[in-house]
Amino acid sequence: MRIRRFCTALAVVPLVASCAAQAVPEPTATQVPGYLAAADGALPPGGTVELQMPVDTGAAGGLDPQLADVAVSWQLMSLVYETLVTVGPDFEPLPGLAQRWETPSPTEYVFHLRPGVTFSNGRAMTAADVVGSVNRLLAGEGVWRTQIGPVESVTALDPATVRFKLSAPYTPFLSALANTPAAVLPMTEIENGSVDPAKTMLGTGPFVDTFHRQDVLWRFKRRPDYWAPGKPAVDAVNISIVPQEPTRIASLQNNSANLAVLGNVDAPQVLAGVRGVTVRAQSTTDFYYLMLNSNAPGGKFADPRVRTAINIAMDRAQIAEVATNGLGKPTGVTPVDLPDACDPATLPSATAGLDRARQLLAEAGVRDLKFVITAYATEPAPAVAQVIQQNLARIGIEVTIEQLDEGSWAGKVYGSVPAGFDAALSWFAGYAGAGMVAKWWNPEQAAFNLGFMKPNPELNRVIDKAATEPDGPNRAPVLRELCTAVDEDAQMIPLVTRPVLVGYRNDSVSPTVYATEGYGNAFRGLADFRLVGRP
Amino acid sequence: MRLVSWWVRRLVSAVLTLFVVSVLIFAASRLMPGGFAEVVLGPFATPDQRAAMAEKYGLDQSLFSQYGLWLSAVLGGDLGTSLLSGEPVAGEFGLRIPVTVELTLLGIGAAVLIGVPLGVYTAVRAGQRGGGALGRLAGGLGVSVPEFVLGSLVVFVFSRYALGLTVGGYRPLGEDLGANLRSMVLPAAVLSVFAIAVTARTTRDAVMNVLVEPYITASVARGETPLFIIGRHVLRNASIPILVVLTSTTAYLLGGAVIIEHLFNLPGIGSYVVQAVGRRDYAVVQAGVLLAAVVFVVLNMLSDAVSGVLDPRFGTQRKAAG
């Protein structure tokens, strides 16, 4: 009898748990255009933000921001380092360490540095730090050296003024300057050897790091001498590295974390109605793309007609709806949320129709095409691959999905030249300038793609054109030309944007989060965060 | 003399075991698809960067050379350098070992405090109403439910009804005792379920074997109290199988801690090695598995040693059997 009661209790507890959740209004919600949430400035400052992220910085370059090439590193380092300019919620360049700037000609930028800015060791930042940082970046091997554009020279006109000269116009220059790898470093300390930027973070930013254990925890505390009055509002930020999604969800539910980055696109449904928890989907310019290996064994994709047929069969709307739970958006190579980005629905592949795809395969003499898509196991990549598999079945192509852990995936895709895989699924950071990510479609600039991609001179020409066409009425047509060229090349096929889910306790924190983000920096507004319920 | 000979052979066997393990883990770590360069340097790395990294950590040498260098370093007490953090692996382990040890001790403590009394109770109540059923239920559930299933259920339930306990909010013991215990109770409870079940079953069988001995009948006839009989005669004579199972279970718990640490996000050795596998951080993986093997071998030898102390016939029997 007792055993029966015990078993009944075991069955009832989860049932009661799921029924007990009730929808409650979010008490601190503030609707501001361009923001998912805006911190309530009336709340008192102070306290510690407990934040959870799934991964830590993992670069062999250590903590050197110039060698950081993944968004999570930018996110962590941006608490300590700052850039000359930053980007607003609509990707407009905003003053950062430069209070203002002029553009005397399309190849010349003059920045006037903000007075009163110091590094966290108390030394004042000067133009020499800016010049030294940029020269160090250009001389280094970090990926941002390519993205920052054709910088010919950088000169200190006086201790508070810096002039950049470019060898050619570069429209996304300010956007590129806004990301963490372009941060102003303490060059005096680096040059005299008292600071190793790979091991020590010394910046002008709102926080200083006080503790780091790899893959476990970061602790940051506020800088009382930070140049912006009243910022940061909180005393400290603890960032726990929690790889397990259920554990991050549990921490949100039981209030042991204020915020967490969530990876499962179903998280809004999973946490719907949980008292005190809000989940918001941040749009990003990052996007998934399909790599078709032009060097694939057997020449499966050497014929452009085969690649085009596959591109035509892609139903981006379906991928967005099914694989990303409606949170992603179809996109071309210019990330769809960026100004002047092309409309993916107007691309040749989107308007051709499946009959055209079948015709192209027939013209290429391809019958019973079978290939393997190599995808890593992190959601929602496998789901994206499954929708692609169904899309391609419509034109008689049989796809097998191979799910690998990240290490195996990277080894298979990038480990050899020529690459040995058939097709692979990945995503690129889309950055904050519409022509930036397109550089990776030029394997002569992005050598990491040489294993599976053949240079396309015409595409390279359009990529360069998109980088130099100034803002104005002609920019959108040039970007559309870029999207079309990438669409027709079809060696790397853009699919859908990659959403980021931010979960937070609305009864313990009032955050500032952009609605759309270009550098994967979901917590860009950490210096504005306020805690709720403090005396 | 026989005992010394037995111990010498035991030591040689242990060293050989560890040598074979070292070869296997070194080979396995290098056979993993995808290399450190692809994982940590990422796709944007240039061939020069990859070559420099390989040279820095000796990854450009032949596998035999790499193994030889690693083994000689390990024998000298150097577990190598983490390819990712650039810090000595021994130091990284030193930071994480307390978490794993605490988790394992809590798990084995629960096995002793719950499993042994439960085993005694079910043995004494064998054949009576309720006793057998309780033992079967506890044993069956505890042994058959995988830790990741039970752990996931616990994470789900306690994320809704925290009851003051935390999931994923680890705090070091020395920093905040209360917070530490609140974060360790659930993972330790999940980890200990198997150990409790196995200990209870073994205790039950061992106690039942002792209870049928003539000297127990004599004790009852002398009018000794049940508690005295159990404490003085039963547990003492049933202690060897219980001790052996507790020792082997401790080694098992160290293995189970890998899953539990990962699930509850405890910063112990287990979760560290799991992440190192994903990152292809060879030095950490090799050192982690080797450490686990050493602990397993040492615990087994310890079990034999204690058994020999408790029952002098033990070593002789091993000799005869061997």
Provide the low-confidence segments of chain B as ranges.
none
Residue share in β-strands of chain B: under 5%
What overall form of chain A do the CA principal axes indicate?
A: globular
Q: Which oligomeric form is depicted?
A: heterodimer
Q: Biggest sheet of chain B: strands, sense, closure?
A: none
Radius of gyration of chain A, CA atoms, in whole angstroms: 24 Å
Structure description:
The complex is a heterodimer of chains A (535) and B (322). Helices cover 28% and strands 22% of the residues of chain A. Chain A has helices at residues 2-20, 71-77, 127-139, 144-147, 173-177, 187-191, 245-253, 267-270, 304-313, 316-323, 348-352, 354-363, 381-393, 406-414, 457-468, 475-489, and strands at residues 35-37, 48-53, 85-87, 93-95, 98-105, 108-113, 151-158, 161-166, 207-213, 217-222, 236-241, 259-262, 277-284, 287-292, 370-376, 398-404, 423-428, 492-497, 500-505, 509-510, 513-514, 516-517, 530-531. Chain A has an eight-stranded mixed sheet, covered by helices on one side. The longest helix of chain A is centred in the N-terminal third of the chain and has 19 residues, at 2-20. The radius of gyration of chain A is 24 Å and the shape is globular. The N and C termini of chain A lie far apart (51 Å). Chain B has 322 residues and is mainly alpha-helical. Chain B has helices at 2-31, 36-41, 47-56, 63-75, 89-124, 131-144, 147-160, 177-211, 214-221, 226-264, 269-279, 282-310, 313-321. In chain B, α1 runs antiparallel to α12 and α10 (226-264) runs parallel beside α11. Classes of the chains: A alpha+beta (535), B mainly alpha (322).
